[in-house]
Amino acid sequence: MTFQTYDCLQMLPIILLSLSGIALLFLGFQKSRALLLPATLLFLVIAFVANFLDWGKTYMYFRDMLLVNNLAMIFTGVVLLSTFMVVSLSGSLADDEDAQPAEYYAILLFSLVGAIMMIGFENLIMLFVGVEILSVAMYILTGSDKRNLRSNEAALKYFLMGAFATGILLFGIALLYGATGSFVLSGIGNYAHSATNAGGSMLLFYVGMFMLLIGMLFKVSAAPFHFWTPDVYDGAPSLFTAYMSTVVKTAGFAALLRILSVSFSGVYDFWWVAMAVVTVLTLLIGNITAVYQASFKRMMAYSSISHAGYLLIGLVGLSQASKPAIAFYSLAYSLSTIAAFGVLMLVARNRPLNAAVFGDQTTLARTDEHYDAFNGLARKNPLLGFVMAVSMLSLAGIPLTAGFWGKFMVFSAAADRGAVWLLVVAVLMSAVGIYYYFRVVIAMYFREGQTDTIRVAPFYRIVLIAATVLTLALGLLPNLFQGLI
Amino acid sequence: MLSQFGIMFLFILTAFAFIGGILLFGKLLRPDRPTEEKLTTYESGEEPVGNAGVQFNPRFYVVALVFVLFDVELVLLFPWATVFGQPTLIAETGGLWGWFALTEAVVFVVILALGLAYAWAKGYLDWEKPQPQLPTVATKVPTTLYEQVNERYKRPTTP
Question: What stretches pass through the bilayer (chain B) (predicted)?
Answer without folding.
Answer: 6-25, 60-84, 96-121
